[in-house]
Amino acid sequence: QRGRLGHGARCLCWVGDLGLCVGYGDGNLRCYYGHSTTTTKKTLTKEWEIQAHRAALTAVVCRLSKEIAYLVSGSEDGSVRVWNLSTRQMAAQFAKRHAPVVGLVLDSELSTRFHSAGASDLFTYELERERPVAAHVRGHGAPYTCLAQRRGDNEREELVAADSNGSLSVW
Questions:
Q1: Nearest partner of 141 among 171, 170, 117, 121, judged by Cα
Q2: Judging by DSSP bridges, how do beta strands 69-75 and 57-64 pair with one another?
Q3: Confidence category of residue 130, pLDDT binned at 50, 70, 90
């Protein structure tokens, strides 16, 4: 199944100043880079495409710095994949859940760490270890619908997940 929204665009993220990466309902990840045609107009053209997942993409984020460059994609089939932005090859795959990925967040403190949320769980992954390093699973309640990170009152980064009833969970 390719999802109830068809094969169209489902999620997107900026790739630095280069352009956009867009996840589609057909499982493809396409990157569009900008080219200035005039001083006021910029055109995006498709630079590359990969078959990222078998199911529709639900989330994509990009880490682009002098030290590291990768994309993370999440899918309706519950898989999370990490892509080397230079080679466009899959660098890691995580498939712990049976529900769609509803959100991905790059960690603001550690460039090799990211977080993903499913309907009833949240995982923190460490790329250097190539595995999840933390998991938060709840047994009941409305499904999570989105995920964000913020600096908390104690000056530490906190993950915040919202559910379909409007409740927030903070870690």
A1: 121
A2: antiparallel
A3: confident
Alpha carbons 42 and 98: distance in angstroms, whole number: 40
**Model's pTM, two decimal places?**
0.86
Distance from C-alpha of 170 to C-alpha of 158, rounded to nearest angstrom: 7
Phi, psi (deg, nearest 5) at residue 145 = -120, -20
User: Across the strands, what pairs with 116?
Assistant: 104, 123
The rounded distance, in Å, linking the Cα atoms of 76 and 18 is 27
Alpha carbon distance 144, 127 (integer Å): 24
Whether 100 and 75 have beta carbons less than 8 Å apart is answered as yes
Residue 151, pLDDT above cutoff 90: no
- How far apart are the C-alpha atoms of 100 and 150, rounded to whole Å? 23
Residue 96 has pLDDT above 70, yes or no: no
- Measured CA distances, 91 to 50, 95, 108, 154, 160 (Å): 14, 14, 21, 34, 27
Confirm if 166 and 160 have CB atoms less than 8 A apart.
no
* Residues belonging to the chain: 171
Smallest Cα–Cα separation from 11: which of 131, 116, 104?
Answer: 104
C-alpha to C-alpha distance for 127 and 124, rounded to whole angstroms: 10
C-beta of residue 138 within 8 angstroms of C-beta of residue 146: no
